[in-house]
Amino acid sequence: MTTHDLYVAETSRETWNVPAAGDARFTWEYDEGRARLLALYQKGKDKQWDASTRIDWSLEVDKFNVLGLGEESCPIYGSPTFEKLGQKDKDEMFQHLVAWQFSQFLHGEQGAMICSARIVEGVPDLDAKFYASTQTMDEARHAETYARFLQEKVQLVYPINPHLQALLATTLSDSRWDMPYLGMQVLIEGLALAAFGLLRDTTTNPLPKQILSYVMQDEARHVAFGRMALKDAYADLTSKERDEREEFVVEACYLMRDRLRGKEVWETLGYPVQECLDYADRSAFQQMFRSLLFTRIVPIVKDIGLWGEKVQKAYADMGVLDMAGVDLGALMKADEDIAENLDRERAAIEARKAEVDATIAAGAGV
Length: 366
Prior knowledge:
Blueprint: H1 35-46, H2 51-54, H3 80-83, H4 87-122, H5 126-154, H6 162-173, H7 179-202, H8 206-234, H9 239-258, H10 263-269, H11 273-282, H12 284-292, H13 297-303, H14 309-318, H15 328-364
């Protein structure tokens, strides 16, 4: 069975071709580099891992309750449509919601892989090329991981969301070398990192927790990379150049907010779409979820200097302006620590199991 057999809707088997724009830039300076980026590059090399061995794929997952969350996590919980559903219908709905969510993670990771490869091509500095090459490998691993999770555990896949596809097309077709940084490293990756974190911290099932934690350990470096590189580059922008990038930030953030409404799920299940969208927009849980998704983006956008009136007005409209003061360093450190703690816990369990097995074997030999 292939991925195409698991899609909920007919999906083209043809490749999606985005016209390349911009120059591939070579540099002949191999010795000089920014210490911060070179240190991040070293960390990127040191932290490579294998998804087939670091993740315990033997862990069972109920495809109808993948995350182990309560009914109140449903965007339409308490709505007239929800109240009419029997248990079988609810099981189907929760499978579709998780499939839709993780499918967008998967498609976004492929986009991140292509964007990081584009950064290797287009960025003028060798230190940034070095780091982006490690990120390309990271993103390939993430796409591999989410694809396996969807195929083996969820057993359902959704096509790419139109808003995500539009943002990827805009990011990749722009000839300016910094746009893959801004579109992917700051905006798409920043939102994904927050979404991963919310699910990692709420799921009660160990397999999705492992996957999200290990992916986030990598993503914390990626967002730091975009932040470092763009903060340096944007210090010298003209007013016109800054205005153009702020316009892009505003448009992209609205696109990302709107793609979280789950319209494709309600359409696929045959639910009254507008009623579901309206109820999801009013849902206290979903409002909290959407606002927290910008915890990584808003402080980075401010930090790299794209903090004009238009950006602040958009964030105020979304209700996320106060997130400009979030301590990103603390969040990133927590992301790394959680993954390391999981490794230690698994190692301790495996060591204990080996000890018990050895004791049993020794007793059997008496």
